[in-house]
Amino acid sequence: MENILITGGAGFIGSHLVRLMVNKYPEKRIINLDKLTYAGNLSNLEDVAHKPNYRFEKADICDYEHMQQIFAAHRISGVIHLAAESHVDRSIADPFIFAKTNVLGTLALLQAAKEAWKADMQDKLFYHVSTDEVYGSLEHGGFFTETTPYDPQSPYSASKASSDHFVRAFHNTYKLPVIISNCSNNYGPYQFPEKLIPLFINNIRHNKPLPVYGKGDNVRDWLFVEDHARAIDLIFHKGKTGDTYNIGGFNEWKNIDLIKVMIKVADRLLGRPEGASDDLITYVADRAGHDLRYAIDSTKLHEELGWLPSLQFEEGIEKTIRWYLDNQTWMDNVTSGDYQKYYQQMYGTRITG
Ligand code: NAD
Ligand code: TYD
After folding, report:
1. Which residues of 189-198 are buried (b: 16+ CB within 10 A; e: fewer)?
2. Do residues 138 and 295 make contact, with C-beta atoms less than 8 angstroms apart?
3. What is the pLDDT of residues 193-236, one digit of tens each?
4. Which ligand is the nearest neighbour of the Cα of 219?
5. CB 186 within 8 A of CB 150
6. Which of 132, 146, 194, 291 is catalytic?
7. Closest Cα to residue 126, out of 115, 103, 110?
8. 0.85 exceeded by the pTM?
9. Long-range contacts (CB closer than 8 Å, 24 or more residues apart) made by 340-345
């Protein structure tokens, strides 16, 4: 049986990818390696955890010896690496854990793969999942392509850019077979409510203020998470070794416009009159160094491998809001305990002024 190691499989995007691959490839063993930080949640995978081709390994990617043991124990032939610290605001509050996990953790995993595979790199692949934020901020129009120079602006994007560089260095130096993809903002079920969309849906439900950073005119390109998982699966199987692929939704939204759509759909689904939650919008102090605009050109992925997003945004956002409203137990579980402390630290003084 072919063994594929997915790191960060208990997180948001990782859980969608694990679900897709466990169901689509019963002949392949999918090993989910995750440290289960605040962002990792095994209940995201309840529907596939019992399947015979699924395994879970609780481990820290920074623990090199443990990574070596896992490669030895499972004869891994492919890695899809998603484990990371992923939230920009947390990276501003504490950059060290971002350097540790995203840079040193990726390095430990690369080294373990290289050592395990050095006798025979044939039919092996280290696929690194990265972000469009490594390219910086598009202040004057245009799109990020695969050849846009790196220009990371936040501690999060600096750590991801650094990890991308290590992946390319291992390809160049040790001939490790690698692929990198850089994707735009994802949305959908199972996203931790520190990110804009699930946080705002939860606040609308509880009639809490919606903290819009700055004037709300920053622009993001949103992609439904299952479309990202499909792209990763396609690139993992059909992509060209050594290459980079950009993945995006061709779907740019100014934050404030997106927030207004969310309020409208959520109010309708909650049976509230139109406009009932408009007053929850609260403009707060801007994020430090807030990138103005991200926009991805994913023409290469479309032309080479035929990928396109499957969902229209209107459909995707309604599906997403409905999911969070229907899954309050999931939301209540992840917003109990430490989350309250996080929320207070991040938003307490911002919202009360
Ligand atoms: P997430 O924060 O929801 O999940 C991260 C997962 O990694 C969690 O399950 C966590 O427990 C695990 N993890 C963290 N540190 C670990 C460690 N030291 N060892 C093992 N596991 C550890 O993140 P996400 O939004 O699902 O993002 C997944 C990947 O995709 C990240 O690499 C991120 O940079 C990238 N990405 C995310 C987006 C997005 O919009 N969310 C967009 C583009 C790229
Ligand atoms: P986020 O979901 O954190 O993703 P990223 O920073 O990686 O793009 O934020 C998306 C956008 O929403 C970003 O421009 C920051 C903004 N934002 C707010 O205005 N208020 C919030 O409380 C959060 C979390 C984000």
Report:
1. bbbbbbbbbb
2. yes
3. 999 999 999 999 999 999 999 999 999 999 999 999 999 999 99
4. 2
5. no
6. 132
7. 110
8. yes
9. 342/38, 342/194, 345/93
In this predicted structure, what is the pLDDT of residue 351? 83
Question: Regarding beta strands 76-81 and 125-131, do their DSSP bridges make them parallel or antiparallel, or are they unpaired?
Answer: parallel
* Shortest-distance ligand to the CA of residue 211: 2
Task: Give the single-character DSSP code of 293.
Answer: B
Per DSSP, 140 falls in state S
Mean pLDDT of the chain: 97
User: Is there a single domain that holds both residue 166 and residue 273?
Assistant: no
Rounded to whole angstroms, how far apart are CA atoms 269 and 318? 9
Whether 305 maps to a domain, the answer reads no
Domain span at 183: 2-187+220-247
- Tell me if residue 132 is catalytic: yes
Q: Starting from the edge strand earliest in sequence, which strands make up the sheet with 219-224, in order?
A: 185-187, 219-224, 252-254
What phi and psi values does residue 42 have, to the nearest 5 degrees? Answer: -70, -20
**Which of 12, 208, 217, 220 maximizes ligand 2 atoms within 8 Å of its Cβ, making it the mutation to test the pocket?**
220
Place of tokens 């920074």: 62
Q: What is the CA(85)–ligand 1 centre distance, in A?
A: 6
d(CA 120, CA 1): 18
Q: How many domains does the chain have?
A: 2
Token pair listed for 339: 């989350």
What is the edge-to-edge ordering of all strands in the sheet holding 244-247?
Answer: 54-58, 28-34, 2-7, 76-81, 125-131, 178-183, 244-247
Q: What is the CATH number of the domain that holds 213?
A: 3.90.25.10
Same domain flag for 78 and 165: yes
